[in-house]
Amino acid sequence: MKGNFHNELMETAPRKEIEELQKKRLRSVVDHVYRSNPIYRKLFDDHGVAPEDIRSLEDVKRLPMTNKEILRESYPLGLCCVPRKEVKEMHMSSGSTGTPVIMPYTPADLEQWAECMARCYHMAGGREGDAVQITPLFGLFNGGFGMYHGARAAGLFVIPAGPGNTQRQVRLAKDLNTRILTGVVSYGIRIIEVMEEMGETLPDLEIGIFGAESFSESMKKRVSEGLGVEVFDIYGMTETGGVGTLGQDCSAHDGLHVWEDHYLLEVIDPKTGETVEDGETGELVVTALTREALPVIRFRTADLTRVLSRDKCECGRTHLRIAPITGRIDDMIIVKGVNFFPKQVEQTLMGIPGVGSNYQIIVEEIDGVKDVRVNVEAEPGVTGFMVEKALKETLGFSPKGDIYPIGGLPRTEGKAQRVFYKK
Ligand code: DLL
User: Which structural domains are found in the chain, ordered by start?
Assistant: First the structure.
């Protein structure tokens, strides 16, 4: 077990201490947003709650919940809680529905992000001086810059490759002895394909940090075997401040440690809004305790997960662990009375020998009846019947679909689109 910490004192602090800190920080962030932003103030006033009402951690439940809508409606900087001159960077998520969400950062926010992300690098076994090849886009997407800020804080040697030009990417990794490769999951798969085409291996590569997309256990196995690395599942989102802010798994690979000194988590039943018990799956709700420019308060992430443990982990960390993300609430597909998530399809497909790593789930409506097709790439010898049978066993019904030769489905350099809706 690697005992690699970035901030050992905080990462291993006793629960009681973390909770005391959370309580203090919750009071202070509530006070900050109430005093500095009229939208937040109105939201709190309409909900009948004032900063003085927040005395314990339980009192978080007295606060109103927020969601992506309020961030969209206040585009571009309506929810910003600091004067414009204090904002030094921004990132943005475009989302599927059009209006983007902008996340502003003060210098302290950038440090907070770097701290969270640096903890993730160390938790994955990164050491000062390691070459880290960062393949998410450097731009409005938070992935590239977040991994950059964190790598600087962790003392790594940054190769700011960004996505694309994959042959050059492989050569760079070889020539510069890249030890840590980071990316969105589907780009990890793309690199494996190109390595195979080039007949290259990357013996110095040991650590793969991937996320931003559905990441089933069987996909993790493929990425791990294809790249020859230990794979880590990294989590974060624009609204909480970007990649790594919500943590990652450690070498025990038993859930994602969430940085609780910076974020207060709740898991709720998305229908009733009530908190669910630890172990029960629900929607993750996040309050950012330490951000200045735009701290989200009880933000409904739409991501589904469950609390796995609040006990000290074998790695020594005390920050709670959540299950890898099941999917987004709005990604749930209901066909013929069966509910499922794209991740379940991925998990099944990736478990079939000879099936490639690219797939499409097509939801179509014919004469008012929803149907689903699953297209997948596969080696010769894999038949549609084999795929249907495997899906029948896990989903309870067997979607039809087409088998494409490896390389037959489109590739993307950013987040892959897996689900397509057709009318
Ligand atoms: O995707 C941040 C990120 C960049 C994470 C690079 C990991 C690597 P957004 O574009 O705002 O930010 O999208 C956030 O992506 O609410 C989840 O639905 C999904 N997501 C992020 N990480 C994971 C993960 C980045 N590890 C949204 N597993 C989130 C599953 C993930 N889904």
Answer: 1-327 (3.40.50.12780), 332-422 (3.30.300.30)
